[in-house]
Design brief:
The structure is a single chain. The protein has one helix at residues 14-28, and strands at residues 37-41, 44-46, 51-56, 62-69, 78-83, 88-91, 99-101, 107-109, 118-126, 131-141. It contains 1 helix and 10 strands, in the order H-E-E-E-E-E-E-E-E-E-E. A 6-stranded mixed β-sheet has the order 2-10-9-4-5-6, with no helix packed on it. A 4-stranded antiparallel β-sheet has the order 1-3-8-7, with no helix packed on it. By secondary structure, the chain is mainly β. Residues 12-34 and 147-162 have low confidence and may be disordered.
Length: 162
Amino acid sequence: MQSPSGPAHRGCVPWQALLLAVSILAFWNLPTTVQFTIESVPNNVTEGKDVLLLVHNLTGNILGYMWFKGNGARPHKQIKFYDVDTKAFSTGPLATGRETMYPNGSLLFQNVTTEYAGNYTLLVLKRSLIYEVGTGQVHVYNPGSNTSIGITVIHKDPSYRA
């Protein structure tokens, strides 16, 4: 009896076939929509002025928009919500009354303070119940403060001597 010249198992393992199919589709099927972007206007705002988080390239059947302070969409960090069907705006726990949300998803902050600096998350809920998430950043400059550099020691090696 002759020994087989190739491996005993011929053909693809099921997960290999799936991996191959996904790889081919990833290269042949380019996305049909462009991911939306968020631009801070102006890029650096002076304390006491206004800043707009301007949303670009929103497409599709949208149910609503939700803005949150920080990274991520947590209910206790919600600022504003817009329901496209009813054209109704509502406020979340972090609304200060100095925010204006527009039907295109953009968010205006008026008379900002340094506490407004940081990341903001926009959650866009589609009619297909799929959501898209984007993050914008607000930089607030206080002209009355001195510029300084802060250094934080993250790890100190006790054997190191300067």
